[in-house]
Design the sequence.
């Protein structure tokens, strides 16, 4: 399995979001005023839960989730998961892979 770096993975995800948005797809983390967008990067667990709920139906959910599970030190919501959820799932995945 080829592991790509954080910068390359982030750029790829952003390109996907740009492409989808350019074709008219609604990207929840890019929709709405700036003030509502801050929940995506908030450190407040309640804000993160609110943002994660908005991810439902996002066409980039799977790629975003993979990014968040690979780069668990990234703050904010990725792939419909809060920071705590991503770290828990990533830890479980590492344990399963080691077994």
Sequence:
């Amino acid at each position: 399995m080829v592991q790509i770096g954080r910068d390359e993975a982030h750029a790829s995800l952003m390109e996907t979001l740009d492409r989808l948005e350019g074709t008219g797809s609604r990207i929840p983390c890019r929709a709405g005023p700036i003030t509502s967008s801050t929940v995506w990067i908030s450190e407040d667990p309640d804000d993160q839960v609110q943002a994660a709920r908005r991810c439902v139906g996002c066409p980039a959910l799977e790629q975003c989730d993979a990014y968040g599970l690979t780069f668990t030190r990234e703050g904010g919501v990725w792939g419909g998961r809060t920071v705590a959820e991503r770290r828990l799932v990533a830890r479980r995945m590492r344990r399963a892979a080691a077994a």
User: Anything to note?
Assistant: The chain has one domain: 6-98. The mean pLDDT is 91.
